[in-house]
Design goal:
This protein is mostly beta strands. It has 3 helices and 16 strands. The strands form 3 sheets. Strands 2, 3, 4, 6, 7, 10, 12, 14 and 15 form a 9-stranded mixed sheet that branches. The chain has a 4-stranded antiparallel sheet with strand order 1-8-9-5, with no helix packed on it. A 3-stranded antiparallel sheet has the order 11-16-13, with no helix packed on it. A hairpin with a 4-residue loop joins β3 and β4.
Length: about 280
């Protein structure tokens, strides 16, 4: 899922252990409450019985939400994932969040296990490991990105893993302009998916829907424009065989400060020399 932290194992990761990198760890992430601009989700039904035991896959999302404060370049993420079967225990026993320390800072808010009426907080500094993985080393590409991995204890089938974090900093290559593509269906079922963006009144964001994606709810809050998408009971996407890789049938929407392709070309041309 785009911008969702994936659950991974540490096999093949290179752990950052030198004194210099240890100092970098402390400066690139921290633990703190969610920022004050975040509006808590109204989704309170964390009943994992809504998903059948025959649901394909190891897990399903009761909630996935992303909230973005465009002016401050902050993105807040909140997910609640239920473990459906034994195969999910190994896959979902750790949480991993990727970020680029050259322009981003990660703040972890909570990592809880919900079991019935019990909530067990798993987020402790001693359980967070910052690791470095370079997927394109075979092409001699080094991007310096990091992964903050949280190891969970005593995860059981039927548990709900509730995870919150914020990433501060947009890629400076965009020169302060915002653009993104957001999918509204995945390979696993999602009970509630929510996106919220808010930005200054003098800032113009253009929105385009694809494949029947929902329209946003637009409003003005304290002099700030707000866009909200909420979609409930999303089934898992069933991919057909032999579909071209370039074809994406999922409902999705685009948000961009670029109104035309000419504006995109002007932005991109600044990175290339004409030789004149």
């Amino acid at each position: 899922m785009k911008w969702v932290s994936s659950i991974v194992a540490l096999v093949g990761f290179c752990v950052l252990s030198s004194p210099a990198l240890g100092a970098q760890e402390a400066s690139t992430w921290n633990i703190a409450p969610p920022p004050g601009w975040v509006v808590p989700s109204t989704v309170t039904n964390f009943n994992n019985n809504r998903f059948s035991a025959t649901t394909s896959g190891s897990h399903a999302y009761l909630l996935f939400e992303e909230q973005a404060q465009i002016e401050s370049q902050d993105r807040y993420f909140h997910s609640s994932k239920v473990i459906l079967n034994a195969s999910g225990l190994q896959e979902e026993s750790s949480l991993s969040t990727d970020f680029d320390p050259s322009y981003q800072h990660l703040t972890l808010h909570s990592a809880r296990i919900r079991r019935g009426t019990n909530r067990v907080e798993q987020l402790k500094p001693s359980r967070v490991k910052v690791v470095q993985r370079e997927r394109d080393l075979d092409r001699n590409v080094y991007d310096g990105s990091l992964s903050a991995v949280i190891f969970l204890e005593d995860v059981r089938v039927g548990d709900i893993i509730d995870y919150e974090y914020t990433i501060h900093g947009f890629n400076p290559i965009h020169k302060g302009r915002h653009a993104g593509i957001y999918n509204l269906q995945w390979g696993v079922p999602v009970a509630m998916q929510r996106y919220r963006m808010f930005f200054a009144k003098d800032r113009k964001l253009y929105v385009r829907q694809h494949n029947g994606a929902a329209e946003p709810r637009r409003s003005e809050v304290n002099g700030t424009n707000e866009l909200v998408w909420e979609v409930a009971d999303i089934p898992a996407m069933q991919w057909e065989d032999s579909v071209p890789r370039w074809f994406d049938p999922r409902p999705r929407f685009e948000v961009s400060e670029y109104q035309t392709w000419h504006e995109v070309a002007v932005w991109a041309s600044s990175f290339y020399s004409t030789g004149q």
